[in-house]
Amino acid sequence: MPANRYYFLDRWFIPHPIDLVWSHILHAEHYPEWWGEVYTAIKPLNDLQPDQIGARADVYARGRLPYRLHFVTEVTEVEAPYRLGLSAQGDLTGTGLWRLEPQDGGTAVSFEWIVQADKPILRLFSPLLKPLFAWNHRWCMVRGEAALKRLLAQPANVAGYNQSGHQQPRSA
What we know:
- The chain contains 3 helices and 7 strands.
- The chain is α+β, with helices and mostly antiparallel strands.
- It has a 7-stranded antiparallel sheet.
- The longest helix has 33 residues.
- It is globular and about 45 Å long.
């Protein structure tokens, strides 16, 4: 395996219903609002909805280490509210897969990220600093889980759901 190739499997538990968690995972253009420590900007590149195969977005991200990443994602698979697959091209090239599963008391979330670091500094230093770059990824994902939990702990962000976590019917 090339030194600049990375495999990550991150797991979260979010104590909210799957439909609510899915809506926040699906709409990546809003990540900077709640996961701003990592995602500085995400801009749609076409008119497709985020749950449509082929939806593309321009992504700008950072971690704890002093470098920035820029890549373009494209939705490759959608099975709402359980799976969202994507490809990435740019500073990171590869695939990602979000998986969501309802569990007692909330939603189990996993993100599988198989990427090659193509940003020149990462490609150059991966043979020596791969553990540090992997630590940086884990730092980002821990921030994401905590940020999503904080966001969903705010009553305004769970509007439309009753205390048992089921979506309430909307009145006309």
